[in-house]
Amino acid sequence: MSVYTVVDRAELELFLAHYSHSELIGFQGISAGIENTNYFVTTEKGEYVLTLFEQLGAAELGYFLELMAFLAEHGVPSAHPVADNQGRYLRSLKGKPAALVQRLPGRSIEQPTEAHCHILGTALGKIHRVGQAFPLRRANSRGPAWWLRTAKKLQPLLAAGDRQLLESELAFQSNEHFEALPRGVIHADLFRDNALFVGGRLSGIIDFYYACDGLLLYDLAITVNDWCISGSGLFDEKRLRALLRGYRQQRPFQSCEADAWPVILRAAALRFWLSRLNDLHFPREGEITHSKDPDVFRKILVAHINNQQTLCQGEISGG
Fold it and tell me: What is the pLDDT of residues 154-206, one digit of tens each?
């Protein structure tokens, strides 16, 4: 979440006139995240998040908004989009597709405990379980084809060691195929800043704008690579096992997933190393923007490569 498109009060009031939200009290740009323009909006009737979509077109956005509504209506703690007076979730503001969603209480957790990880794992497992009934489909826009395009663009800008690591990992991943693994709706970006807690309760999962159809195990790998990693890039085994136990309560693992787990962990680290390198070397202009340190995921990728034989496969197989 960032601010690339500036909205003034008069423009926002005209936008809100299409909703049953009464008088605007205040609004503020949000600096967290990197993809879209976001504002906190307070009216006499409540608090909301306004998102202006900077990359995605209106034709693509129905998937995300319908998914958010579906998950909220099926007991997943998440923000329900708000319909306008014509029953539509999507409108336009400043020439950009825009949507208003409920603002959930709580805050993200910088230093998650085992208890937080267990709760989060349970919620992710529920997304994967109930998501099997979601009828819409969307391909992963940040899958292997994107990896290759982005790597080609970045390679001239990287130091020799990074270039060698990137080429080696892309070659390794190109030889791995997991057609038999379970698939379904995945969040694809469930980092700590996309989950809100009130005390020890998960109040909501947010930012579904990378969601797509994909490998359920890949979504789990993305999540543990953020929630369960120590400063060295190695797993905190207690947090990892707590998250996997919570997940398994909602979706038991299939036997084929254990063998794939070390490779999928590397794929998830590679994807976010690439995206952070891309944001660093090709920043977008905006009023409030920031990029995240790519070396975090380089360190995680290297740790997974060096420890591939000991990456907790027993927990994935149900051990």
Answer: 999 999 999 999 999 999 999 998 989 999 999 999 999 999 999 899 999 99
Who contacts 102 (Cβ-Cβ below 8 Å, separation ≥6)? 46, 48, 49, 79, 80, 81, 82
Which CATH number characterizes residue 19's domain?
Answer: 3.30.200.20
pTM greater than the 0.85 cutoff: yes
Number of H helices, E strands in the chain: 10, 9
Domain harbouring 229, CATH code:
3.90.1200.10
309 plus 282 within the same structural domain: yes
The whole-angstrom separation of Cα 271 and Cα 183 is: 18
Nearest-angstrom CA–CA distance, 26 and 267: 42
Give 123-142 as a DSSP string: HHHHHHHHGGG-------TT
pLDDT digits (tens, 9 = 90+) for 64-76: 999 999 999 999 9
Show the domain range for 306.
Answer: 114-316
- Residue 225 corresponds to which tokens in the numbers above? 């690579």
Residues 62 and 139 in one domain: no
